[in-house]
Amino acid sequence: MMCQLSKAGYRAIAPDLPGYGNSSLAATRDYALENQVELLHQFANQLGIRSFDLAGSLMGGAIAALYSQRYPQQVRSLAFIGAPLGVVDWAASVRNSILDGINPFIPISKEQFDLEISLLFVTPPTIPDTVKTERVNDYITRNRHYQQI
Predict the structure, then answer these.
(1) Which of 106, 110, 118, 104 is nearest to 134 (CA)?
(2) pTM of this prediction?
(3) pLDDT for the residue 28
(4) CA gap 103, 95 in Å, rounded
(5) Sign of the CA dihedral with 16 first, then 26, 19, and 37 last
(6) How far apart are CA 65 and CA 51, in angstroms?
(7) What whole-number distance in Å separates Cα of residue 64 and Cα of residue 114?
(8) 24: exposed, middle or buried (C-beta count within 10 Å: 0-12, 13-18, 19+)?
(9) Whole-angstrom Cα distance, residue 35 to residue 40?
(10) pLDDT of residue 87
């Protein structure tokens, strides 16, 4: 999506906030949504960005919603790409997975990864097995960290 926005002439920036992606690990308390909002605000200020369009999905959607409430003068528009975490109740399929002992958002097998993707997308994208294996290995390696978040 970032490439498409850039091709359309937008300056597209995707900050790697603590807890996901390639960011370094931090103390669990640092992942509080309010702290993430402040980090995003500092980031925008350091780049000299006074006003921007903001989008997010899942946890990023919740951060974007809180950011737009706290700093409405900076946010021109707000978009949710998928549901923001905590804004809508979990679907029965998510609740049932958790009751079955599977956290569908911390998959530790390719089957659980497929479950996660099926819960996140109406029409799941095709994901190569190599990418699935890489993501699952990351979830296994950093499992405790993801559980704490």
Answers:
(1) 110
(2) 0.59
(3) 55
(4) 9
(5) negative
(6) 15
(7) 27
(8) exposed
(9) 9
(10) 55
